Amino acid sequence: MYENNFPKKRFQITLDFVKKHLKDNETILDLGVPNPFSKILVQNGYDVENTSGEDLDDDFSKVEVFKGDAVTAFEIFEHMVAPYNVLKAIPCEKLFVSVPLKLWFAPAYRNKNDIRDQHYHEFEPWQLDYVLEKAGWEIQDSVKFTNPVKKIGIRPLLRKFTDRYYLVYCTRKK
Description:
This protein has 174 residues and is of the alpha/beta class. The chain contains six helices and six strands. It is 28% helix and 23% strand. The protein is globular.
């Protein structure tokens, strides 16, 4: 189902998690440009539209007018300065979010050549929980998982048993 360079484990865990909480004919707004995982969602029966690469810290107009069933934000909030604003603007009742967790043994990802390809935040679970709750969301389910890499060294060894991703399913508070 995946090409060789795709993160198979992360994609499979995320797909299984979405399938657990969302019927395969529901409409999703995936925050971010079309990507390999949004294509996997389409292949699994979901009707997916994406945002267009706009800076979601400043322009969440496409989010505000979305009329579908769920919003997904997979590995997007770590690139934003203020995810709270877009979280408040989401009009539907279901939300899926995944973020990279802060690792005590590695600095946050930074690409000095591309300001948009870096992590402003790497979260501790409580930080994501806090911003979700403050924006009006209630976490219904969550999972943490590792992201081993095929390298040799202390950091790759630590990645084998240290959770790297946090994935949540939320519903709008009543």
